[in-house]
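Chapter review: from sequence to fold.
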Amino acid sequence: MAHRLVRDSISIVLTATCLTLFGMESPVAETDAPQTDPLTMTDLGTINFPNSGDKEAQTAFLTGVKALYSFEFNDAAVAFRAAQQTDPDFAMAYWGEAMSLNHTLWDETDRDAAHKILARFAATPEERASKTPAGRERGFMQAVDVLFGLGDKLARDQAYSKVMRELYEAYPDDNEIATFYALSILGTVRPGDKGVGRQMRAAAISKDVFSKNPSHPGAAHFIIHALDDPEHAIVALPAARVYADIAPDAPHALHMPSHIFVQLGMWEDVVRSNIASYNAAVEIAERTQSERGRSEFHSLSWRLYGDLQLGNLAGAEEALALAHATEDVSPTNRVHSGVMGMVARYIVETEDWAYAKSLELDERDNGNLALQFAVGLAAAKRGDISDAQAAVKYLKALRERTETRENGAYQAKIIAVSEKEVEAAIAQAKGNSAQAENLLQQAVAIEMTLNAPSGPPLPVKPSFEMYGEFLLEAGRLAEAADQFELALTRTPNRTKSVDGLAKSKPVQYGAAR
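The C-alpha cell string follows.
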C-alpha cells in the first residue's frame, strides 16, 4: 500500500540521522533541563524589561523572558539559570526559572520543583519579597508565590491573575506586566467555559502591547491564543502573519500561526507553518539531544491534517513516514502514542478502512482515543462487527475512567461522542438505520456542548459531518445540508463538510469537487 511504500522509501535516508533530528518539549524538572548555551536561541523578538540585575546578566535574562513568551520553557529555564550564575542575588532570575515550570495553557505545572527554585533565592515568600527590589520586581515575585501557593490549580490561577491585575493597574504603561497579565487571564479559562469575556480582555490587552511594539513575541502569541476560535480568528490573522517572523528561533512561534490558519481553513498555510515548526524542533533536538515525542510530533500531526485537507496524500504519507522513523529509533510510549494518533487521523480522513485492519496493536493502544475510534469505525465500515464492538468496549472503559478523574468531565464528553459514532456505524452496518440515526443525534447533542476545536478536530470525525453523510446517503438533502453547515461553523472549510454541502445543495454549489 502507498503509505507503507512511502515509509520504506525514506526511512533508509532517515535511519542514520534521526537520532539527532527529532526533539521534544516537556515539563522541566529542576535537574533535567537541557544544559545549552541560552545565547544560541537569540532571535526571539524584542521586549523592554527594565530590572535590577547586573549588566552581565541582562542578555540571558531577556532571552529567558522572550523564551517564556513563546513557551520555549526548557530554553527559558537554562537562560534564567545562566543569569543566576552571573548575578546570584538577581531575584527575577529565580522568578523566571520558576515561571518556566508553569505551562499555563497546557494545564501543566510542577509546584514542588518551583518551590525548590525559589528557595534557592530565599526560604519563604516573606524573605523573597524583602530581598526583591520594591515596585515591579517585588510585584512579580509576590505573584509567582501566589501562583505556586496553596489550593488547586484553578484556584491558584485565579488568585495569580488577580495579583497580576493589581500589578497591571499600578503600572498601566508597562508592556511586560501587561503581557503576563493577559496570559494570566487566559490561564483561568477551562474547556467548556461559556462566554469569551476573558479571552476578549486578554486579546485587547495583548493588542494594545502589539500596537506599541509590533515585535513583541508575547503580545503576538497571546492574541492568537485569545482569538483561537472560528468566530474571532480573523481578528488575529495580522498577528499570525508576523509571529513566526518575530521569533523564528522558537518552534512554538512557528507553529502557533497555524491555530489561526486552521480556524480559517487556510490549509496551505497550515502545512507551511508546521513544516517550519517541525524543522526548528529538529534543530533543537540536534542541539540538546532531547527526548522525542512532543514538540516535533505536535507540528507533524498538524501538518498531516493540513495535507489531508488539501488532498495531498504524498505530503501526509511523508509526515507519517517521519513519525514511524522516529519510533523506529525511539520507541517510547509518548512517541508510539503520537504515531498512532497520526495513523488514526489518516485512516479517518482517507477512509482507508483496510489499513486499519493491517495495524498491529498492543496494550498501549487500548487507551488511545483517536486510534480506538478509527479502528472501530473502520471495522464497522468493513462489516467486521466483532472488531468494532471491541473498540467500543475500549472507548467505554476509557470514558468511564476519564469521568472519575478530577476535571475529567469535558474530556469524557469527547470520548462519548466518539463512542456513539462507532456504535452508530455498527448499527448501520447491521442495517438498523433508525438506531444509527438515534445514536448520531445523541452524538451531535453532546458535541454541541463542546467548544469548537482549536486545531485538528477532536472527536476526530465531527459528529455533525458524520450525521450529514448519513442523511446524504438516505437522500435527505435539506437535513444533510443543515448538518454540514453546522459542521462548517465549527471547522471552517473542512474538506469533507464542504464536499458534503455541495452534494446536499447541488443547484446552489454545483457538482462536488
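Two observations follow directly from the output. Residues 1-38 have pLDDT under 50 and may be disordered. The chain is about 70% helix and 0% strand.
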